[in-house]
Amino acid sequence: MTKYLALSLLLFTSVPSFATQVFTNPSLNGNPTPEGADIALYVLDASNGKELYSERAEQFQQPASLQKIITGLAARLVLDKDFRFETTVETTDRDVIINFSGDPTFTRTHLRALVEKIKLKQTTIPGNLYLNGGAFDTSERAVGVPWDILGVCYSAPSSSITMNANCIYGKIEGTTEAPVKALKTSGSPYINISAGDIIIRQGLENQNIDCDLKLTADNNNRYSLDGCVASNRLPVNFHLAVQNTTLYLSKVLQEELDRAGIQLNGKIMRNDKATGTVIALHQSEPLMKLIDIMMKRSDNLIADNLLKTVGRVYYKRPGSFENGAAAAKAVLKEKANIDLSRAIIMDGSGLSRNNRVTAKQLVQVVQYIFGNKELGLIETMPVSGQSGTLQYRSSLVNAPLTGQVSAKTGSIYGVYNLAGKITTKSGKSLYFVQLLSNYHPASDNRNVARKPLRDFERSFYEKLYNNH
């Protein structure tokens, strides 16, 4: 089935805006919520669990990447802290099997090392080379992920057979110097990318308002561009999500076999039941390192593959978004007494627009993470002005807030969330959750558009810092 993807979303990040709403709590009065936006806020005193501030705290909102704190905690409670994804090479009398487990950090370099291990044992494969991807089910996209971001690398498919983050590159450029009259495409040799009937627009910027490239992609990793491109934007470089992970890896694997001088008499094909005797093993970094990357970089593929792994280990069946979500809810209730039964969890990353959670539900997760230091999750949280997605968050990077906020961020179209802990001027620790949605500024200027958000957040968190 052909998938239609809006290429403009590959190139630019939409900047959101806000609703005028003055805090009802006098101690927190400050800059209002930006015009048009919805806000849910919840603040607790970490020392006694006392509620300090609540605004629409039981209203269901989109968590975006705050979903990752649920995923991270569930993974830590279900998997051993030294858990590693494993990719094995197995053999039978005639066949070779590469057994994948969904390692989101597996690369071509790792694949090459495994092929070299095969070469040490044999230079001819009499039968077939099977790719076993049975660790997960074959549903690689969560329900509720928008169709128009399926080609973007941050929404790469969550597959048991994963390599190079399931991401490839492409480029479109003019065939001549300005004024450009024709275009050409290039990209990874493992895909096919072509330019169709693309209008090349010259001239003033206001004439390019409706000028966007659009992309179609199919399950054979064929991509086609059409629509419109402004000549002053050329060349356009972009990264694309692989649509068929098995086909992609098969092509790379054949090249690696040829490079190593291994003769394959049969075919490379997928077989999720194939097993043999293990002759080589690749392991990922341990769980805590993966969670650290997931939280600080807000890595979606790690999050989704971890959630599926939680489902696989907990229910002892192929991992899926569905059993991963069910396992996360079950284990958080069993081991942390956190009730997420009414939360809607569709994935591990927060990309699905169907996810729904309340500030009160999320603050339980925050409270457990910071209240149980032995889990090692506190160190994975970004810190304002210092690390991860909070290193350059303009509302928190300056004194007195720099270094005082340890929190996960969450952003998708129109959503700008935060959840974590703030250390106040007096040394008190407060847990907070901010769920802000429908933020759509009128200005196209990034700095102007973000000013209401910066002012709101800076004012809110400085009030918390100074008044407690």
Element order: H for helix, E for strand:
EHEEHEEHEEEEEEEEHEEEHHHHEEEH
Numbering strands along the chain, what is their spatial order in the largest sheet?
3-2-19-18-17
Strand content: 15-25%
Count up the domains.
2
Tell me which CATH architecture of the largest domain applies here: 3-Layer(aba) Sandwich
In short:
With 468 residues, the chain is an alpha+beta fold.
Write the layout of secondary structure elements.
Elements: E1 3-6, H1 8-11, E2 38-45, E3 51-55, H2 67-78, E4 86-91, E5 96-99, H3 108-121, E6 124-125, E7 129-132, E8 167-174, E9 183-187, E10 192-201, E11 213-217, E12 222-230, E13 236-241, H4 245-260, E14 263-264, E15 268-270, E16 277-283, H5 287-297, H6 300-315, H7 321-336, H8 359-371, E17 405-412, E18 415-423, E19 429-437, H9 446-467
Parallel strand pairs: 5-7, 6-14, 7-15, 10-12
Antiparallel strand pairs: 1-11, 2-3, 2-19, 4-5, 4-16, 8-9, 8-13, 11-12, 17-18, 18-19
Describe this protein with a few key phrases:
five-stranded antiparallel beta sheet, alpha+beta, 9 helices, D-tyrosyl-trna(Tyr) Deacylase, Chain: A, Beta-lactamase, 468 residues, 24% strand, 2 domains, disordered N terminus
